Amino acid sequence: MTRLRHYFFDENLALCQIVRIFAPMIEKVILLEQADPVIFYGTNNSNILLLKTLYPKLRFAARGRAIKVYGDEDDIEMFQAFVDRLINYCNEYNKLNEEVILSFYNGESPVEKKQDSLIIYGVNGKPITARTENQKRLVDAFAKNDLCFALGPAGSGKTYVAIALAVRALKNKEIRKIILSRPAVEAGEKLGFLPGEMKDKLDPYLQPLYDALEDMIPTAKLRELLETNVIQIAPLAYMRGRTLSDAIIILDEAQNTTAPQIKMFLTRLGLGARMIVTGDMSQVDLPRNVGSGLVQAQHILRGIPGIATVEFDKRDIVRHRLVQKIVEAYDKFELTQKQQTLPPTSAGSESL
After folding, report:
1. Strand pairing of 274-279 and 307-311?
2. pTM
């Protein structure tokens, strides 16, 4: 009887194996919608080679944003669930390596060190945080208001934090696009005619915005977002006539706007949109007889609900340690100059 049982058991096992061999194989395409393919695939496709080792029964090839998988349906479903976890990790931390993949495969969750005041993870997993009290105030103000002014000296992180907040909102699908703008004003120099197409002429003015984006979004992904206009970088003059909805709009170097320009920009705000306006009152490059629109806007809009102003100071400067000392020295010099040009006081005139 025991022999008979073993016989039937062996027969059933063999039959299951035969059914598995001749079961229909299927093909599935897994798209990397958010995660950057360059990071996900790894250097020289090292991550893909590891996945092939972990799932030897499957055949798959990766090209662009698509991973084609060929094999048994049950195996593909398991692989899909595993890859989804990797995609989520890659999208959040902007990195993926063999150690992380093996941790997920072994049923563990990679532990990332918590960062205080984290905004997002930049390229190669670099944490981008609010590093000073006023930077934290800007993060909080942005969460509660649709229009924020960030004012303060060079190097205090106004623009950098603003762009990080916009990139985070885009990654979280809170908005559909990011629009970055700057007035095309020369900083005390006459550059004359610039060769090339319109984009080539304007890019030098907008380069600081590109620099910040390159810290936060991998190169291939950033190129794609720029080409599809999900991220738009444009001079202020191109804003007229537009209604900007479901977007975060950042105006940088706003101290170089005229009163009509900043009014035009602020009235572009559409449904589901938020704005951050940054500027440094000490670095106005407008002609002497032209007033800064940012100064006027601050006076006119003071006290309106939904509008917040965060003022940065020398303590927020996070560039080279000498930058803070340079700013302090110039502030002292300008104060001395003002005192020397002040008219005599009324008390002094009476004594004469």
Report:
1. unpaired
2. 0.77
Cross-strand pairs, 70: 27, 59
DSSP 110: P
- Rounded Cα distance, 45 and 49, in Å: 6
Q: What is the pLDDT of residue 6?
A: 45
Q: What would the two tokens of residue 46 be? A: 């090292």
Write the DSSP string, 138-164: HHHHHHH-SEEEEE--TTSSHHHHHHH
Pair 39, 95: CB distance under 8 Å: yes
Q: Please give the Cα distance from 264 to 250 (Å, whole number).
A: 14
Q: What pLDDT was estimated at residue 307?
A: 95
Please enumerate in sequence order all residues whose Cβ is within 8 A of that of 176, keeping only pairs 6 or more positions apart, or say none. Answer: 230, 246, 247
CA distances to 151, 161, 223 from 316, rounded to whole Å, are 11, 12, 31
Among 296, 209, 304, residue whose Cα is nearest residue 260: 296
CATH value of 118-338 in 3.40.50.300, 3.40.50.150, 3.40.50.10420, 3.40.630.10: 3.40.50.300
Q: Is the pLDDT of residue 34 over 80?
A: no
**Is 235 strand, coil or helix?**
strand
What tokens were used for 299?
A: 């006076």
CATH number of 2-105: 3.30.1370.10
Report the C-alpha gap between 262 and 274 in whole angstroms: 15
Question: DSSP letters of 50-63?
Answer: HHHHH-TT-EEEEE
